[in-house]
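@here heads up, posting the sequence + SMILES for the zinc ion run so it's all in one place. Ping me if the SMILES looks off, I pulled it from an old spreadsheet.
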Amino acid sequence: MKALLIIDMLNDFIKPDGVLYCGKKAEEIIPEIIKLKNEFKEKNFPIIYLCDAHELQDEEFSSFPPHCIKGTKGAEIINELSPEEGDFIIYKTRFSGFYKTDLETLLKKLNIKELYLTGVCTSICIMDTAADAFYRGFKIKIPVKAVADFDEEFHKFALKRLEKIYKAELIY
Ligand SMILES: [Zn+2]
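bot reply: prediction finished. Complex structure tokens:
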């Protein structure tokens, strides 16, 4: 069984007026994720959103400006990818979707072995979520047109590292 992870496709990261806007590249992956979402839904494979959700004060704000504050517009999933009935939403406070969340429990319950990682940023939340997935024995797939980074060099390096170190299969 496989699952589609949609990571941090939130207003603060994806929309030009967002606090941590990741750039045009991040907007360009939206249609690709919609396509994947439809394919997964058709076959009844689960869709899991991983969403940054911070308190007003958060340690992470020592390295990044305050973003995705719980209850604000910036923390909401972009309209184009609004969750539908049956989709799962996991809120996180760190880069990895596994850190202090119920993601692992959910994946076990759903008998998921294979994770398709999509969203932003390739070198941060995709990378760290992939690492934690790898340690837990999940197979990782990265649809390359469905991930983006604010830094193109980081993006390229991250894809290489994901493939070499975490045995991710890059799908072009
Ligand atoms: Zn954050």
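MO: The chain has a mean pLDDT of 97.
MO: One more: The domain at 2-171 is CATH 3.40.50.850 (Rossmann fold).
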